[in-house]
């Protein structure tokens, strides 16, 4: 049995429009919480792709990441089960696209909210993670890293992409 540490890799979007931030309210094992549109990175996608997918699934808004805010790590212990989880979060900001009317939100998402920075600070006790405010603060301080700061080898897309990459390298 392996005791290897395996943090949960998540992606999150900090989306601002007219001085308000797109947030979600979701049911968790800890109760009703406020979070950025966020979720787990899926196999076969880059962190930026995962962030765009999660934003759409949780808010019904299209989102295109244009900058990395940062990579964050936090540890959480569930009060209900005692489970100890470490989250490694890639947070992005970018361009808000169209709202997809009628699109159902992910299971557990109660609603979306547009909140000011002051409202977010005032509700810190209801945040799903301390990273909600840290990402907000980095955004407000103007932190913007290029998307290229996260290198994604083509192998993440599966064996087919490795074959294509090898064929290109061999033809060069």
From TrEMBL:
Keywords: Hydrolase, Magnesium. Its EC number is 3.6.1.-. GO terms for molecular function: nucleoside diphosphate phosphatase activity; ribonucleoside triphosphate phosphatase activity; thiamine diphosphate phosphatase activity. Its cofactor is Mg(2+). PROSITE patterns: NUDIX. Residues 4-137 form the Nudix hydrolase domain. CDD domains: NUDIX_Hydrolase. The keyword Hydrolase applies. The keyword Magnesium applies. Gene3D superfamilies: Nucleoside Triphosphate Pyrophosphohydrolase (3.90.79.10). SUPFAM superfamilies: Nudix. It comes from the Bacteria. PANTHER family: NUDIX HYDROLASE 23, PHOSPHATASE NUDJ. Monomer. Belongs to the Nudix hydrolase family. NudJ subfamily. This is Phosphatase NudJ.
């Amino acid at each position: 049995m392996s005791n290897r540490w395996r943090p949960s890799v998540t992606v999150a979007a900090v989306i601002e429009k007219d001085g308000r931030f797109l947030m979600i309210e979701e049911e968790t094992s800890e109760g009703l919480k406020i979070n950025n549109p966020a979720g787990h990175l899926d196999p076969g996608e880059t962190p930026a792709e995962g962030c765009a997918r999660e934003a759409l699934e949780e808010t019904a808004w299209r989102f295109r990441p244009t900058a990395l805010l940062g990579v964050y790590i936090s540890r959480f212990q569930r009060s209900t089960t005692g489970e100890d989880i470490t989250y490694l979060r890639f947070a992005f900001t970018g361009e808000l696209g169209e709202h997809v009317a009628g699109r159902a939100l992910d299971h557990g998402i109660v609603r979306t909210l547009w909140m000011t920075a002051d409202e977010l600070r005032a509700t810190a006790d209801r945040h799903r993670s301390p990273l909600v405010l840290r990402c907000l603060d980095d955004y407000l301080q103007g932190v913007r890293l290029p998307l290229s700061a996260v290198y994604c080898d083509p192998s993440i897309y599966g064996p087919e992409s490795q074959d294509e990459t090898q064929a290109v390298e061999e033809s060069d």
